[in-house]
């Protein structure tokens, strides 16, 4: 998940003067959710808990207001910020997000519809057997640390053609492998806790979100099916919904830069 703040001349790390962030005049901030990378674990966390974490980061950096964007697992957490700290969030964009499980109009059968078998297995285990989930993801994390490209390669068989085109790019494959390795560098705790949080009550009601919102989804996504974003867009009064035909889950990586100018408008 990313935070954007309009502070020309005040950025985290060097920003090329010919780069998009420099031209937009924004400060781009990322962080590891609890249990990932170098972040301490927060056992039993819910999706809604992210709002206090983001508020603390913003306070530390002296940011009164900011825009938020989340892709895939970052999507629910970006929505939580919009719902729970609307006085600080100016705009929010969510790409290929999941929707709350078992929600009205999206029961468990619908929630899993169109999802890849590996994801169904993981989320079903997260619902019913936390110990088994921890054991499975501990083994997967060990394999990723041994071979950072392992998860990317293991996903390939379940990718749609659109995702294969994106992941075929050497730079993106390298980035994904590096990100997966960093996520589980210490343990699979963040991965485990995310899976459980996504399958549990989120602690927010998307219908209460009033800040300007963009919901984007690739029509052929099999990791978080488009029905999830369609449900979100119907519940969020301020949502602008885009479904891109011929696109899938990893196309969101390429779409994100196109959303930055919109996100930056009210975060200056």
Automatic annotation (TrEMBL):
Pfam families named in the record: Abhydrolase_1 (PF00561)
Gene3D superfamilies: alpha/beta hydrolase
Superkingdom as given in the UniProt entry: Bacteria
The protein's name in its UniProt record: Alpha/beta hydrolase
Keywords per UniProt: Hydrolase
All copies of domain AB hydrolase-1, residue ranges: 1-254
Listed InterPro entries: AB_hydrolase, AB_hydrolase_1, AB_hydrolase_fold
GO molecular function per UniProt: hydrolase activity
SUPFAM superfamilies xrefs: alpha/beta-Hydrolases (SSF53474)
């Amino acid at each position: 998940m990313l935070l954007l703040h309009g502070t020309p001349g005040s950025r985290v790390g060097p920003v090329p003067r010919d780069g998009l962030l420099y031209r937009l005049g924004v400060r781009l901030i990322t962080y590891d959710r609890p249990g990932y990378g170098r972040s301490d674990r927060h056992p039993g966390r819910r999706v809604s808990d992210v709002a206090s974490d983001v508020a603390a980061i913003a306070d530390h950096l002296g940011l009164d207001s900011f825009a938020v964007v989340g892709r895939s697992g970052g999507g629910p957490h970006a929505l939580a910020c919009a719902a729970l700290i609307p006085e600080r969030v100016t705009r929010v964009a969510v790409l290929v997000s999941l929707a709350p499980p078992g929600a009205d109009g999206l029961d468990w059968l619908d929630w899993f519809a169109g999802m890849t078998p590996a994801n169904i297995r993981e989320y079903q285990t997260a619902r019913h057997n936390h110990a088994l989930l921890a054991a499975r993801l501990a083994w997967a994390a060990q394999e990723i640390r041994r071979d950072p490209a392992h998860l990317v390669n293991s996903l390939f068989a379940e990718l749609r053609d659109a995702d294969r085109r994106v992941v075929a790019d050497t730079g993106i494959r390298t980035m994904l492998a590096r990100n997966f390795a960093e996520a589980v560098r210490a343990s699979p705790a963040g991965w485990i806790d995310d899976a459980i949080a996504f399958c549990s009550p989120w602690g927010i009601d998307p219908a209460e979100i009033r800040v300007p919102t963009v919901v984007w989804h690739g029509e052929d996504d099999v990791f978080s099916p488009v029905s999830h974003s369609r449900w979100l867009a119907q519940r969020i009064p301020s949502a602008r919904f885009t479904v891109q035909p011929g696109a899938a889950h990893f196309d969101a990586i390429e779409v994100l830069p196109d959303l930055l100018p919109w996100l930056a408008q009210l975060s200056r």
